[in-house]
Design brief:
Keywords: 4Fe-4S, Iron, Iron-sulfur, Metal-binding. This protein is mainly alpha-helical. Helices cover about 60% and strands about 0% of the residues. The protein starts with a helix and ends with a helix.
Length: about 230
């Protein structure tokens, strides 16, 4: 299994252009630019909440609008009228709900001293999960890409790609997948970011729910499913 993991990481390191084509920017381990070119941890959090059930290209347009209005900072959003924010993020699905949730989140984070203070808390994941609109995948994404805490977000792409890649049958249980992958992978910030970004990319471009493009997939030589298809 270790040999397969090492081979995966080797393949993923060569996928820079493909990662960038779908909005991931591999740079140094602690940079926020991994996450769609985000310039700050605040931008990672904001877009992580806005991108739920919304296309990334729409969220990028909205982020640029927020930047122009200096609304790309949680401290500023905390003091913003949710109705005004909903107008600014027009194009995002469920924008009124998301605007309200984002303002509440910003207020709560600002009250404890910002994301820097949050990162130092021992209950950071519980804090995030207690915020309205933040589920497990969003919480883990914020921890990994905004707070630089090595934790593996589990998406539907993660489950599908690793199920086929390793022949796993772990079902749909988020925590079971998280425990398995974190026990399998080197606990390293860069590696976690690289693997998450690469798996999302492969899931979007090749490992489709039906009629996967195995013959074009970078993992075709190490994937049990692809090899089984001949």
């Amino acid at each position: 299994m270790n040999e397969t993991v090492n081979r995966l990481i080797e393949i993923f390191r060569k996928m820079k252009d493909e990662l960038e084509s779908v909005g991931w920017y591999p740079v140094d381990a602690e940079s926020t630019r991994w996450w769609g070119g985000a310039e700050t941890p605040d931008e990672v959090v904001i877009t992580a909440m806005l991108v739920q059930q919304t296309r990334w290209d729409v969220v990028h347009e909205v982020l640029n609008r927020l930047r122009r209005l200096s609304l790309n900072k949680l401290e500023v959003i905390a003091n913003t009228d949710p109705n005004y924010l909903a107008e600014v993020i027009k194009g995002v699905n469920y924008r009124f709900t998301k605007a309200q949730r984002l303002v509440k989140f910003a207020k709560n984070v600002t009250m404890i001293g910002g994301l820097g203070k949050l990162r130092l808390r021992g209950d950071v994941r519980d804090f995030l999960l207690n915020q309205e609109g933040v589920g497990r995948e969003t919480a883990d994404s914020i921890m990994l890409f905004a707070l630089n805490i090595p934790t593996m977000p589990i998406s539907q792409y993660t489950k599908r790609v690793f199920s086929r890649l390793l022949g796993l049958k772990l079902g749909d249980n988020y925590d079971m997948w998280k425990e398995f992958l974190e026990g399998l992978l080197p606990r390293d910030l860069y590696t976690y970011k690289l693997i998450h970004a690469s798996i999302i990319t492969i899931g979007k471009k090749y490992c489709l729910p039906t009629d996967p493009l195995c013959n074009k997939c970078p993992l075709r030589d190490v994937c049990l499913y692809a090899r089984g298809r001949g």
